[in-house]
Design brief:
- By secondary structure, the chain is mainly beta.
- 0% of the residues lie in helices and 53% in strands.
- It contains no helices and 9 strands.
- It has a 4-stranded antiparallel sheet, with no helix packed on it. Strands 3-4-7 form a 3-stranded antiparallel sheet, with no helix packed on it.
- It starts with 10 loop residues before the first strand and ends with a strand.
Length: 110
């Protein structure tokens, strides 16, 4: 698996509807985050084939953890709203881990 330091090798479209990993594969979780840029909250959406634990973490550009949430996914599309009211404006790395799969997106907080 890749470390968090490898996030910059992923290529995401500006609307984050289609994220391709650095090896050219489509996102296994169909991970999206909207709106992007975000102000007070952002919705993280991903698909799951079955139930299981997942975590959503956001890191600033210095690598500091600013959001850490976890919950249970259900089969199908899962959505989690993240409160950003206490998050400073800037560029962040959003990391979603479910089982052995970890995917990343870049998000902008205004």
């Amino acid at each position: 698996t890749r470390s968090l330091c490898d996030w910059s090798s992923d290529v995401c479209s500006s609307d984050l509807n289609a994220c391709r990993l650095s090896n050219g594969e489509e996102s296994a979780m169909q991970l999206t985050a909207y709106p992007n840029p975000a102000k007070d909250q952002i919705t993280v959406s991903f698909s799951a084939e079955n139930s299981g634990n997942y975590s959503i973490r956001m890191y600033d550009m210095t690598g500091c953890l600013v959001v850490d949430q976890s919950s249970q996914s259900t089969p199908g599309i899962n959505r989690q709203e993240i409160n950003l009211q206490n998050i400073s404006g800037g560029l962040y790395n959003l990391v979603v881990t479910r089982g052995e799969v970890t995917e990343r997106l870049r998000v902008v907080v205004e």
